[in-house]
Write a structure and sequence with these properties.
Structural class: alpha+beta
Number of strands: 5
Strand order of the largest sheet: 2-1-3-4-5
Strand content: 15-25%
Largest sheet: 5 strands, mixed
Low-confidence stretches: none
Radius of gyration: 14 Å
Number of helices: 4
Order of helices and strands: HEEHEHEEH
Helix content: 25-40%
Distance between the termini: 34 Å
Mean pLDDT: 96
């Protein structure tokens, strides 16, 4: 699967976002080691702590279907800056990514995107020893 195909899946997922407060839809497409892809969108709540990010929505869907190894995630948002996973999402991603090697694709308006390794975005994750 190409970067653009994964990004397009994230864009399509953003169309389902529930964002009555921020009005900023985000979509995510999570590619698993077996090639399957799970998508998610942000779901806001008046109690902000109960809001679910697109990335975690996709992760929960994948885990609930038995996937535990992720290789790449695309995060779609139409802002002036690149739409990167929040700290909580980065930590959750690290739970399922060996050595921070997962690729993280992040978009901004105009369809532009950048690529990072999760280890660049979260250099010191919490780990169970």
């Amino acid at each position: 699967m190409t970067d653009r195909e994964l990004l397009n899946m994230a864009r399509d997922a953003a169309k389902n976002a529930y964002v009555p407060y921020s009005h900023f839809p985000v979509g995510a497409a999570l590619e698993c080691a077996d090639g399957s892809v799970f998508t998610g969108c942000n779901v806001e709540n008046a109690a902000l702590g109960a809001t679910i990010c697109a990335e975690r929505a996709a992760i929960v869907k994948a885990v609930s279907e038995g996937r535990r190894r992720f290789v790449r995630i695309a995060v779609y948002g139409e802002g002036e800056t690149y739409c990167l996973p929040c700290g909580e999402c980065r930590q959750v991603l690290s739970e399922f990514c060996a050595n921070g090697s997962m690729e993280v694709l992040c978009t901004r308006s105009g369809g532009r995107y950048v690529s990072y390794r999760l280890s660049q975005l979260l250099p010191h994750p919490f780990v169970m020893e």
